Amino acid sequence: MPTLLREGPYRFFFYSDEGDPREPPHVHVTAGDQVAKFWLEPVELQSSKRLRAHEINQLRKLIERHQTQFLEAWHAHFES
User: Fold this and answer.
1) DSSP 42
2) Which domain holds residue 46?
3) Torsion of CA 61, 66, 71, 73, to 10 degrees
């Protein structure tokens, strides 16, 4: 479960075993019992639990800022 970024209370990561067939590139976010999953191409919320709208918007902006880095990590991990 590679951690891609820690920002405040949030941890951005993906699972090493993302299923078969593998889903498109995405990132999971957790902070305590708050969770979300965002697609990376384009950046779009896939699901969330216990997050408020302003937190989701903040997370989307962070992911957009780091989108290239996250995609590079995804492809390096799964295509190696």
Assistant:
1) T
2) 3-78
3) -140
